[in-house]
Design a protein that fits this description.
Rossmann fold; ATP binding; 9 strands; binds adenosine-5'-triphosphate; four-stranded antiparallel sheet; five-stranded parallel sheet; alpha/beta; 32% helix
Length: 219
Amino acid sequence: MKNKTLTLDALCVRKGKQSLISVDTEVAPGTITTIMGPSGIGKSLLLAAIAGVLPEAFTYSGAVYYDGAELTSLPAHKRQLGILFQDPLLFEHMNVVQNIMFGMSKNESSKLSRTNALLDEVGLKGYGQKAVQALSGGQQARVALLRTLASSPRAVLLDEPFSKLDMQTRQQTRRWVFDTIRHQGVPCIMVTHDKADAHDAQGRVITVAHSEKEKDQQC
Ligand SMILES: Nc1ncnc2c1ncn2[C@@H]1O[C@H](COP(=O)(O)OP(=O)(O)OP(=O)(O)O)[C@@H](O)[C@H]1O
């Protein structure tokens, strides 16, 4: 396994005996692998399994490795992954800047100036002191993206990251997010229904599908 690569080793999410989704892939640092497929097939659950937050009703088989070390044996908080869920929850008792700085290292200097620079880059200059409830859905989505990427994660998991953004903001934010991932050199897995997201990601696209044969198969 290559350095700083995120590896899904026959990772399979199951409900009882039924296999929902199974993916076997390696994601190199600074690249984005896109997962596409029908609604309800288990794409979000796959990300939850990688992150270590799979709901109790489900189980998984296989394993996840980062840089050759198994992540699936670690509790979620020790995996150090940056995760953006489909409905990202911002901390409502914190303002925009506090939300973004939340995951930054305690030792990091000039957190505030870095956060303000990040806000500027995604078109939210001057929004730092606002309450998150005062932002639109698209603005909140961008704050959640910044919080995910600012925490210096070892790998990034994005679930429909741009779905709440209008066309123009979507293109700009997408470009910024993908450039940032490449610049940070972290592996990223993105779930999306939008082919333009997959195209701009310039990485491997994995399309998952329902398969009668696989349904009752042990994976
Ligand atoms: N916490 C949960 N408890 C019980 N069932 C769940 C839970 N989360 C997801 N499911 C169910 O598991 C199945 C897969 O859900 P998941 O959200 O992973 O699908 P998805 O492929 O990401 O769909 P979409 O593209 O619509 O977001 C669905 O039937 C969903 O209702």
